[in-house]
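Objective 1b. Sequence-to-structure analysis of ScbA/BarX family gamma-butyrolactone biosynthesis protein.
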Amino acid sequence: MDRNFRGTTSTCVPGEFVHRADPADIIPTGWTQLAENRFSVSARWPAEHPFFSPVAGDRHDPVLVAETIRQATMLVAHAEFGVPVEDQFVMWGLHYTADAEALAVDGLSSDVTVDVICSDLDSRRGGLRNLRTTMVLTRDGRHLATGGAAARSTSALAYRRVRGERMAALGRPVPLIPGVTPQLVGREHAKDVVLGPGTRPGQWQLRINTQHPTLFRRPNDHIPGMVLLEAARQAATLTLGSGAYLPTAMDVSFSRYAELDSPCWIETESLPGAAPGTETVRVTGLQDGRPVFLSTLTSPSRDLTAAGAGLGSRLAG
C-alpha cells in the first residue's frame, strides 16, 4: 500500500474506530504516527469497570492487555490505513505476555503507552485486507507487556456474501443456559459467567449472553472473539482450581467463526509450565466437531500467587 508519512497526531478516539459505543469501554485516548508503519497509541485503563475488574486481589485484569491490543490494532487500521468503519474486522490471532508485578493496581497511574509496528500489510483494490501488529506496552516508563495481533478486514458487501444465511442470526435471541458458580471462574456476578456445565470433566458449554454490555457490544451474527477469550480464561481458572487466576501470557488463534445456533464446547488440558514457577493450560473450542479456536494460557503457579511474591521476575522473560 502506498502511503506517505504525515506525522499525524490525534487526541480523540471515535468509538467507531475501536468498535465500542460506551465511552467507558474505549481504551485508547490518542495516537501519533512515528514512521510509515509505526505508531504510538496512548491509552488509559479504567480504574473501575463493570467487567474488567481487578483479579488476584490487586492486579489489573491481564485480559485488558488483550483488549488494548485489539483496540489499538483496529484504531490504526481505521485511522491510518483507511479501513472503512463499516467493514467487518476479524482477529485471527492475538497474543500477549505481561509482567505480573507491573499489573499492580495501586501505586501506578492508569495511563499506558503502546508502541505499535505494523507489518505483513496486504491490500487489494486499494484497500487494506490483512495486517499484523507487534506492540510494546509501558506504564510510568516501565515495561508492562508485549504482544500483537493478526487481523483481516472485509467489506460489508463481501461479508454478507460470505456469511450468507448466517446473517439471519443477527440480533436473534439465544437461549441463556445455566452457568457455573461465578466464584469458581473468578467472577462476582452470574451475568459475567460464560461457561455452563459440560458432559464430562474438563469440558464446559459456552454460555452466550447476547445482552452482556461488554462482551456483546452490538447485535452480531456470530460469537465475538472476546467471548471466546473470556471462555478460555474461565476454563483455565476452573482447571487450576484457583479463583485468583492471573493469566500473564496468552496466545490464541481462531480457525473459523463461532456460530450462535450450535453448542460450542470448551475443553482444557494442563501442560508443563512454560517456565519454572508457571502453569500452562491449553483451551480448545469445538463446534459441530470442528475446532473454533485454540488458546494457551500461562500463569504464575498457585503457590506463587498465594504468596504474592516473585511474580514478575519469573514471567518477565
